[in-house]
Write a structure and sequence with these properties.
The chain contains three helices and no strands. The protein has about 80 residues and is mostly helical. The chain has a domain of about 55 residues.
Length: about 80
């Protein structure tokens, strides 16, 4: 798989995960699906750890991107709306 294909697939996976919101599930639904959800979450975690370990094994760091803080006027506007 090319690096472009790999990054594309990882980006799609991250986007798909971002669309999942279990906060709207009822307790009964969550309870009924908990084993399946736990299995899937552990599989995702294992694959992410594997990829990160492969990067680190080559001497590179896996770091979180630096997010610039919002400008003061934007923070003030958001605070006023909340």
């Amino acid at each position: 798989m090319s690096s472009n294909d790999a990054i594309g697939r990882l980006t799609q996976a991250a986007s798909a995960l971002g669309d999942v919101d279990v906060s709207g599930w009822s307790d009964d639904t969550l309870r009924a699906r908990l084993d399946e959800l736990s299995t899937v979450l552990c599989r995702v975690d294992a694959q992410l750890s594997r990829l990160a370990d492969e990067v680190r094994a080559r001497g590179f760091a896996v770091t979180e991107p630096v997010v610039e803080p919002l400008p003061k006027r934007v923070r003030a506007t958001l605070a006023a709306v909340a």
